[in-house]
Amino acid sequence: MKILLVEDDKTIASGLEYSLQQEGYWTVLCHDAASARRVLAEDIDQFTLCLFDLQLPDGTGYELCKMVKERRDIPVIFLTVIDDEVNVVMGLDMGADDYITKPFRVRELLSRIKSVLRRYQKLSHAGAVIDIDNVRIHTLEGKVYKNGAEISLTALEYRLLLIFGNHVGQVLTRNQLLEQIWDVAGDFVNDNTLTVYIKRLRGKLEDNPEQPALIKTVRGLGYKVGD
């Protein structure tokens, strides 16, 4: 998962970036609104969540939040020293998903991030879009994208990915996968065929299929995607 961090205080920004990376997040760091706007305009689809400092030298987090929400429905958390009801309400009305006042403990911010991401994951599973790291499934269109680029999948590959997408964080045994694929596959799918399709999916979706980070093998149990 990639996070856009916009914070003008370079000391705070450096500490936050380090902490986020230690938690396994990829980060893009900007110190002003102008550079953040450029990054968002170039490829907003690469981001899973945004952390915006409210007061920036050349703008505000409100403006960036508005830009994000007009293009994609991804979570936005404000970081600010301002702690009054008017600004909290304004931020939430702009579409922000959470609001944390400086100084704060990094563990508290990480907890807020995970909480917001869980909420979005539940909503995406109930809706038409499922996000798994840098892979996005548009269920109404039957299309899959990686880093914004469309990936061509066969019907069975798509169905297998959709099963994983609807069970993010859960270990699925080979038998569970076979049973669910069998429901819609139209022909017999055996254990060897499943192995082939897992390999094909990894070849199309993983950055390094030999060391899969998306579709992980859980030895002795099966497979899982996500945390």
TrEMBL record:
The keyword Phosphoprotein applies. The keyword tRNA-binding does not apply. Residues 127-227 bind DNA. Coiled coil: none annotated. InterPro entries: CheY-like_superfamily, OmpR/PhoB-type_DNA-bd, Sig_transdc_resp-reg_C-effctor, Sig_transdc_resp-reg_receiver, WalR-like, WH-like_DNA-bd_sf. Keywords: DNA-binding, Phosphoprotein, Transcription, Transcription regulation, Two-component regulatory system. Residues 127-227 form the OmpR/PhoB-type domain. CDD domains: REC_OmpR, trans_reg_C. GO terms for molecular function: DNA binding. It comes from the Bacteria. The modification 4-aspartylphosphate is found at residue 53. Residues 2-117 form the Response regulatory domain. This is DNA-binding response regulator. It comes from Paenibacillus borealis.
